[in-house]
Amino acid sequence: MSVPEKSAGGFDTRAIHAGQAFDPTTGAVIPPVYLTSTYVQDGIGGLRNGYEYSRGGNPTRTALETQLAALEGGIRGLSFASGLAAEDALLRTVLRPGDHVVIGNDVYGGTHRLIRRIFGEWGVTHSTVDTSDVAAVEAAIELGTTKVLWVETPSNPLMKISDIAALAEVGHEAGLVTVVDNTFASPALQQPISLGADVIVHSTTKYLGGHSDVIGGALVFAAGQEELAERVEFTQFAAGAVSGPFDAFLTSRGIKTLGIRMQRHSSNAHAIAERLVGHPGVARVLYPGLPTHPGHELAARQMSGFGGMISIELAGGAAAARRFAESTRVFQLAESLGGVESLVNYPSEMTHASVRGTEAEVPESIVRLSVGIEDVDDLLADIDQALAAL
Ligand SMILES: *Cc1c(COP(=O)(O)O)cnc(C)c1O
């Protein structure tokens, strides 16, 4: 019997098959979950397929890492216990005291906190800039000292769009590592490696897992970054923030429906964004799918869909934003995003509370929606009743 090439084909075929070959012993369609910490050796040092101890390697994690690399078009995927654990392993490997990072002024609050509070203590400095402004990024780079350019697009929570291809070119000229956090778009809608990015970061907790039932993170390396991938793999092993086998299984399972979920997230979000536009209580709707969004044309070029995230600026400021966030019923009030269920978040006191008072502070009039894949009519009715309560 011939085994099909598991990493070939279109995006959905790779999402379902890469790394997910059936079990050769029983024919089980789904590869087993290897709930084991260690592996019997055939004599001292006689390892079966290289497996020795599950911090160093576990077949369920290997299956996920193969799937991740195939999704992003990279040469290597690494899976971690959380998105921030993945970021930490990458930054720890690349940065030394005295180095400098250029980071978007509108990134995930926890990323900013990690660089400012943890790496800051170790003598790493950073500049926050609007990465949708390529000239501002160029100006912030200190040649020879800046080692990492950190880009998040669409950004969180202001939904700014940054030009990945242009930024990667700037990064390459400066000899630094260009990192793209692809959590918001997911590889179903945006392929940063094909645009020149060196390393992709994910919180797989979000769209990749897709069901709000597991915390996880990932790194994927572009061709040409083999040496860096090996060094980060050593950090993963030596520092140990790996994903456990059951978490890896849940993430692999979620990934198989990523393509179809992102279509529905995008179409539901588009309908809601259009409903919100023009309502007197809404000052601005930040959704890259709207032609009025300043990043719309760029998003249409570098993304194949506009995704499920919307931010809204309420005309009535903080009080109205809080009232809206506490009035929705189908949209549940919670941090996080990317699951099948719709969530509403008040960034300035929830996801982005850690950046209050810093240069990355989020306005108090902003509410963020993670639009799920429920029936769109139910979501629209929920938005209507929350707007009526303003
Ligand atoms: C959630 C998130 C992270 C951090 O991931 P965790 O899995 O929570 O550690 C990083 N980047 C973005 C864009 C996120 O939304």
TrEMBL record:
Matches recorded under Gene3D superfamilies: Aspartate Aminotransferase, domain 1, Type I PLP-dependent aspartate aminotransferase-like (Major domain)
Transmembrane segments: none
InterPro entries: Cys/Met-Metab_PyrdxlP-dep_enz (IPR000277), Cys_met_metab_PP (IPR054542), PyrdxlP-dep_Trfase (IPR015424), PyrdxlP-dep_Trfase_major (IPR015421), PyrdxlP-dep_Trfase_small (IPR015422)
GO MF annotations, alphabetized: cystathionine gamma-lyase activity; cystathionine gamma-synthase activity; pyridoxal phosphate binding
Entry keyword tRNA-binding: no
Names of the cofactor(s): pyridoxal 5'-phosphate
Tagged with keyword Cytoplasm: no
EC number: 2.5.1.48
GO cellular component labels: cytoplasm
Residues annotated with N6-(pyridoxal phosphate)lysine modification: K206
PROSITE patterns, per the entry: CYS_MET_METAB_PP (PS00868)
GO biological process, one term: cysteine biosynthetic process via cystathionine
Keywords, comma-separated and alphabetical: Pyridoxal phosphate, Transferase
Family: Belongs to the trans-sulfuration enzymes family.
Protein name from the UniProt record: Cystathionine gamma-synthase
Organism this protein belongs to: Agromyces intestinalis
Lineage of source species: Bacteria, Bacillati, Actinomycetota, Actinomycetes, Micrococcales
